[in-house]
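Researcher: First entry.
Model:
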Amino acid sequence: MNSDVKQKQYPDALMVIHHRKSVRNYTGEPVTQNDVEMLLRAAMAAPSAVNCQPWEFIVVTDRKTLDALGDALPYTKMIFKAGAAIIVCAVPATAHKQLAEYAVIDSTLASQNILLAAEAIGLGAIWTAAYPYPDRMHSVRTILNIPLEVIPLNVIPIGRPTGEDKPKDKFNPKKIHLENW
């Protein structure tokens, strides 16, 4: 386990889950290499079918590249003030049975871990979709030189939150169906 995780006190898992929010407002401050590594360690701790881990991560801190992604993607404008972005890529060739479905599901789990870890360490993050939109995937592939056989699942802008974004209580008992309770 990463020594930073052992040494520093972090909130418990349920607190992080219930306080996580989609952060669209950032201060513009940079994100440290140590913080990015913590997020990637969390991502790679995600479960995957038969432990194939069919994911790859592209970390972007270059302002010009972040801005190019913001210009190209319609729902990623918050990246202009983010300090970094992680692009989560699904790699079907390394997935269970080499199926894209497994690669996407497994990479989604890794993405959720990034979002939760960002909340836990005091950063803000938001999932912005590239997949399944051909135009968005094309833009991300072009800007970052990603091969066609790799699926750019999302772009996750990361940064220091301004505090404007708040968590939402999404609990809905109507979505729960009990059998034999």
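Researcher: Second entry.
Model:
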Amino acid sequence: MIFETERLLVRRLKNTDASDFYELMRDPEVMHPIPRKTLSRKKSDLRLKELIELEQKSDTNIWGFTKKSRSEIIGICGFLKNNKNEEEIAYSIAQKFWGKGYGTEIAKGLIDFSFDVRKTSKVTADVNIENDKSVKILEKIMTPSFEFYNIKDDCIDRRYQIKKEHWYRLYKS
């Protein structure tokens, strides 16, 4: 286990997560707001293998998360580096678990982990401005800083950020 929140456990991805991972990667409702194309089973399996291997080679960490009462992953989450080499959180949740507060819970858990364990001073999140669900989550817990054209994903992203001292003042005091 990497860390836990009130209802969720975050752990390393495993090859046995292939079916649950594919459920995320094949769902257009999950993938298009990011925006990313859905994946075939073969491409999903290859992507899962890449993510498992990536953790051993870089600062990028993508993990699976489960409800404490279940073993199958209900989403993926982790850390990337943005174009300014700053800590960036990322998460994606299976559609059948939307609207239950898991997005906010995992985002807060990632921020806590970043400040408490990874010892960062600022956390960011980039989101496609048309990804209403993620925008709503990030608006609750972070501050928007600017918008930019994301060449790779061909969309307008908004960068959110929060500094450690502000996070601690809001959520740790």
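Model: Note on the second entry: The first helix runs from residue 18 to 25.
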